[in-house]
């Protein structure tokens, strides 16, 4: 049995691993087989992670975090967790190919998954013009007209990035104000290739084999219109990835894992949660890293408590034994 | 690094379309993180089912004609060819079990 298993390999998971490894807990970090590194693997330049004044590429940052975690003794497993059982004192984790693992403590940091539009043709045209990853797929839209949906930082970043390839990028947003940070908004506004389409929701996607046009609904007037585009990048937010722990860990009304106050403590002793899976508000690499730090310190404290309790129990057993010997000796004499 | 051999715009017809074997073409690029993640999984599948399927790679940066011909707009994209025809398309990096299930008909 291990002392600690960390599930998830974004900034929260790897930062938790750095702390846990430095505390000598020899963590196992289960990173996933194809999504290791998490969301930052799909970003380009990260300009707001402290300590990198020149900026750093998202995948490079994740490689560095992994190196730092491994340097202190973290074991990284490129496999997927298929199920967990947190009901007993010993927590059980099953994986796709590497078998089952047990630990005294768990840090759950599975992050979040891209939100889908929920439209009929979204799935059918996914990979055929509908995409969730501008850095992966932007290349295929050279000299094309495309649309990005969303009003947050990731929508601004994707739209700005996509102008490297596309001739024109429509940025479609439900409201007439953006959630994105000022610097990202200004960058998008200043870009000649980006045209904002406010107060509009995408209600349909058309196309035989590839995306040909979008059906837009004006969210104020209800008026419908058709917008011809060859690609659609969806950046409308994320949902916490909690399916592994449904029925085991308490969730909040917004779907994140519930933790006590500013700690990482879930409703089950020994199970700690960190990163985007507990946070749908800030969702930054730096806040996820901080959250991973909290979880590692909470877990370390919990494990120290367990060790102390078992030491006290051993001491009591020893004392009881001595008493027994004493009493036997006194009856003999 | 992948064990799969590379095919190009120039060799695609001979290596893939005119081949007697069942061939999976992995459309990929250097800058695609999910492509790097799926590559070793494809290597494993190829070595475990070498008598059934051959897996090759096509770099979309260097071979735009073939990528355009097969309307690739998202990578990794994996297409299975038999007798010159596409018989199966898989888009996006997936865990090994999911890929094996998608490819079940060609691995048995």
UniProtKB/TrEMBL annotation, chain A:
InterPro entries: FAD/NAD-bd_sf (IPR036188), FAD/NAD-binding_dom (IPR023753), Ferredoxin-NADP_redctase_2 (IPR050097), Pyr_nucl-diS_OxRdtase_2_AS (IPR008255), Thioredox_Rdtase (IPR005982)
Reaction(s) catalysed by this chain's protein: [thioredoxin]-dithiol + NADP(+) = [thioredoxin]-disulfide + NADPH + H(+)
Species assigned in the record: Subtercola boreus
Details of cofactor binding: Binds 1 FAD per subunit.
Subunit and partners: Homodimer.
EC number: 1.8.1.9
Coiled coil: none
Keywords for this protein: Disulfide bond, FAD, Flavoprotein, NADP, Oxidoreductase, Redox-active center
Domain FAD/NAD(P)-binding intervals: 3-292
Gene3D superfamilies assigned to the protein according to its UniProt record, in alphabetical order: FAD/NAD(P)-binding domain
Domain of life of the organism encoding this protein: Bacteria
Signal peptide annotation: none
Protein name: Thioredoxin reductase
Cellular-component GO terms for this entry: cytoplasm
Cofactor: FAD
An MF annotation (GO) of this entry: thioredoxin-disulfide reductase (NADPH) activity
From TrEMBL, chain B:
Membership in a protein family: Belongs to the thioredoxin family.
Pfam short name (any one): Thioredoxin
Ranges for domain Thioredoxin: 1-108
PROSITE patterns per record: THIOREDOXIN_1, THIOREDOXIN_2
Swiss-Prot/TrEMBL GO biological process terms: cell redox homeostasis
Keywords, sorted A to Z: Disulfide bond, Electron transport, Redox-active center, Transport
GO CC terms in record: cytosol
Disulfide bonds: 32-35
Keyword Electron transport: yes
Signal peptide span: none
Originating organism: Subtercola boreus
Catalytic residues identified in the record: 32 (nucleophile), 35 (nucleophile)
Transmembrane segments: none
Residue(s) at site: Deprotonates C-terminal active site Cys: 26
UniProt site (Contributes to redox potential value): 33-34
Biological classification of the source: Bacteria, Bacillati, Actinomycetota, Actinomycetes, Micrococcales
Superkingdom assignment: Bacteria
Keyword Disulfide bond: yes
Protein name per its UniProtKB record: Thioredoxin
GO MF term (any one): protein-disulfide reductase activity
